[in-house]
Each structure stands twice: as structure tokens, then as C-alpha cells.
Amino acid sequence: MMIQISIRAPDGQSRIQIEDESTLGKLVELIKTKTELGSFSLKYGYPLKPLDIRPSLQSTSIKDLNLRGETIVVAPLDPRPHAADVQAASAEPKPAPFKPKGMEPDETSLSWPERGGYLVLRVMPDDNSCMFTAFGGALSLENPSRVLRDKVADYILAHPGKYSEVILGDNPQRYTTRMRQMDTWGGAIELSILSDIYDVEISSIDVKSLRVDRFGEGKDTRVIILYSGIHYDRIAFCLDLGHPVEMDESRWGTEDDSVLSKARELAQRLQNMHYFTDTTDFVIKCEVCNWIGQGARDAATHERETGHSRFGEMQIE
Q1: 3-state secondary structure string across 132-155
Q2: What does the alpha-carbon distance between residue 8 and residue 44 come to, in Å, rounded to a whole number?
Q3: Which of 32, 161, 184, 303 has its CA 20 to 30 A from that of 284?
């Protein structure tokens, strides 16, 4: 079966397709080709952990590593300049680019000298639970996907007048049964409910439009997440890019408009990197029955009609 893996390298984000029966060695070669890097280390998961790519382990199958839907971060070990760069450098030496202490290539960040640190993008795994992980991590919850799915489902069933079939687009019992499954996407309804449950404003910034959708306006505390079409990540503040995510600040007072402005600035940078999926025309495939459709609306219709909720974006060459 063909699977997709997201790659984050210093020059941006991309995706590769590979047979799950292929070996780790084949994956490493594909990454070399995609990134044009000869030497690198790999990390994956959340929090990030090393992927051991020693030659003795490269016969391991991709299926055994359970990498389907993962995001792999590529960190150069010995970056070599291209010949043209070497020639230019010899003619007129240039100062080395600024690189903050401890900066990892998976972090897209903005220096914030007024506050003595950095606003950073914390990348969530592509496992259909990214929204729950992004929000739950901001609250330092253990096993956020499981906990938050159950809380959302229980809340819907406890408020039948507010969350009717008209609002949900499906029978509440069927809707909540699906939402408890770990491969079902969460969206605006779930964000609104989580805002009520935890009494926080959730500000969701859309990368493509830079629009800010606020769930739970009027509350005292704010969490900021970033929406890139079919994926959610978390916005956080750290004093040093080398600090672990456990030291992040990811909750702010709603009167702190400067952090929201800074987050939109970070989203603007990501937009320039085309860090979003245009959900109006991207081609998707149901990983349950191999149905193929176009756009988020088709996916939502297919999910309502079949109960299938595992989708992948198809790459059209």
C-alpha cells in the first residue's frame, strides 16, 4: 500500500509517497533526493524523537516503523554549499546568517526581543488528532486526544437542544460515536465545545487567509492554534529555542493583543512558504474504501454517508 509521509527540511515542507513494504534505506534515499542533502539526522513523533537510520537498520520495513501519516524533520549534519555559492563567497565574503542558539530546523519561529524570546510553531503529528493534540498540549493534558474526544462527545449528548442533528449534520449518537474514534477529524464544532468546557478563548489562525476565528470570545484566557487547511498546529512562546516544549508558554490573557498580532505575523511567514492546503480543490482518497473526492466538502459528505473518517491527500504529478 502506498503511504504519504510529510518532510520538513530547512528549505520548507514537502511530502513523499512510498510503499509501506519499502525499507528504511529506500526512505532515506528518497529524502536525500527530495532535500538535496547528503548527510542528516531524522526526527519524528510528538514530542520529537530520533529515527535511527544507521546502515545496519536500513533494511527495516516502513510498515514496521509505523510511519504512515508521520511528519519527519530533517536536520542537516554537514551542510555543503553549492559550487555557485562557493564561488560567490570567494569573491566577496559574507557574514554568516543569524541562527539563534539551539534552533532546530523543525521550528518556524519569530524572534520577539521585546519579550526576550521567540514565538514558535509547534508542529503536530498528521494522525487525524492534530486539533486535539494542539489544544490539549497548550493545557498540558496527558493523552489529550483520548481525553478531549470523550469530553466533547459527552458534552454533545448532555446538551441535545444545542447540538441537534441540524447543527451536527448527523444523528448526535452517530456523530459522537465517530468522534470518540481516534482517526476522526475535529473542527469548529469541537473547538467551540472545548472553549466552553475549559473556559478559554481558542483563537484559530487560518494560514491561507490570515483570518482569526475566535471560539469563546469574552473569556479571560487565550490559546492560539494555527489551521493550514487540513491540519492544526500550536503557537507557543519560548525563551530559548533549545528549551523543551514543556517550558513553553501557550496561554495568554485575552487583553494581550500583541501576541495575537505576532502570531498572525508568523502565519504570514508560513503563508509565504505555502504552508497550507487549498481545501477547495485538493484531491482526497478514503483510506477505508479507496473512494476519491475533491475538497473538504466532499470529504465531509462521504464521512456522513459511510462513517469513514480516514482520508489522505492525493499527490497529482
Answers
A1: HHHHHHHCCCCCHHHHHHHHHHHH
A2: 10
A3: 32
Q: Which helix (H) or strand (E) holds 30?
A: helix 24-35
Give the integer Cα–Cα distance in Å for 32 and 20: 18
Q: Residue 316 burial by CB count (10 A; 0-12/13-18/19+): exposed, middle or buried?
A: exposed
3-state secondary structure of 171: coil
| Grid cell for residue 139 | 493545557
Contact 3, 17 (CB under 8 A): yes
What is residue 300's three-state secondary structure? helix
Determine the Cα–Cα distance for residues 210 and 204; give it in Å rounded to an integer: 10
Positions marked active-site: 127, 130, 231, 308
Cell of 9: 527540511
197-232: pLDDT as tens digits? 999 999 999 999 999 999 999 999 999 999 988 889
Q: Are strands 12-19 and 2-9 parallel, antiparallel or unpaired?
A: antiparallel
- Predicted TM-score of the model (pTM): 0.61
